[in-house]
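Researcher: I'm preparing a figure for a lab meeting and need a structural model of a single chain. I don't have an experimental structure, so a prediction will have to do for now. The sequence is pasted below. Please return the structure as tokens so I can convert it later.
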Amino acid sequence: MLRRNLVLDLSTAFGFGTTFGYLWWYGFHLPRVRERDTYYARLEQERAEARE
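Model: Understood. Here is the structure written out token by token.
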């Protein structure tokens, strides 16, 4: 009984951890990184145009 509960608890924890990790990575982190990179690329382009 204890072993069955342990396996269930561990598999549930790993399942939820993996699921929410993917949700955070693809739903929050990557869009924010893309937004940041776009901002700095635009800023660099504006500075290059201002130097010319």
